[in-house]
Design a protein that fits this description.
By secondary structure, the chain is an alpha/beta fold. It is rod-shaped. α1 packs across α2 and α1 packs across α4. Helix content is 46%, strand content 21%. The strands form two sheets. Strands 3, 4, 5, 6, 7, 8, 9, 10 and 11 form a nine-stranded mixed β-sheet that branches. The termini are far apart. It folds into two domains: 86 residues, Winged helix-like DNA-binding domain superfamily/Winged helix DNA-binding domain (Arc Repressor Mutant, subunit A); 199 residues, D-Maltodextrin-Binding Protein, domain 2 (3-Layer(aba) Sandwich).
Amino acid sequence: MSRRLDATLLADLWFFHAVAQCGGFRRAAEQLAVTQGAVSQRVQRLEARLQLSLLQRGGRSLQLTAAGQQLFAACDSGFDTVATTLVALQRDSAPASVQLAAPPSLALEWLLPRLGRFARLQPDISVDLLADNQPYSPAALRQAGIDLALRYLPHAPQDAAFVLPEYGYPVAAPAFDPAGHGGRLLHDDAPWSTPTPAGSEWALWLAAHGRPSGCDAGERHFNQAQLAYRSAQAGDGVALGRQLLVARYLQDGSLCRLDDQPPLLLGYYALYAVGSSAAVAALGAWLCGEMQAR
């Protein structure tokens, strides 16, 4: 009598395991999506091959013989081990995923153009980007499943993993005429990841250097920096550009600096690490390097 585990024997053992686990042929057939007769034939073939009686037939409930009980226990343990191993293998081979939250302006203007570079460097790490400017709360971020959070704050925090000062200056379209009188101050009224009064960011520049030339036509307010930058590109006035966000527009010529005043300290980027996996550490280190390199 052969005990070699060929494909037929393994398939018949799977059918027997289903019958023993479900407590009957009908429920096993439903679970396996085959006919009850097919299940019965498989179990009979197994018993004939093993020359063992595995089920006590007759009566209203199915009973396993002593040999059937031993074989079911062995199958149950073996199939469970295989299933657990398959899950582990699939988990290990799946790309690591990192949830990254960042202020919308930073996410759109700076992060998105760079994430492709990180994907090429770390093809096994998938980054899900959430544009979110809510105040930092470790418990809230953890509950939302966020692994890394970038925040832009008016003051340097003490509890962040990484802090980078941000500077800014007035920017406008190349055709903007500082000698004219048709320009507006273009505000981002929600610059930081903390609630502040409207116009707070421009107030820092106005206190230090006064109103830029050519901005005599009032003000226009937005709730995101990128909207102020787009308005400036359209020639509507002057936006207060943060260096990290407007660098590419200065390079492509769609925006230009209005004066030669030194950049003014406007706030601080802060990185908070909520998760602790190797993928989170890799993305965090890359973000720090990119921000320092600007």
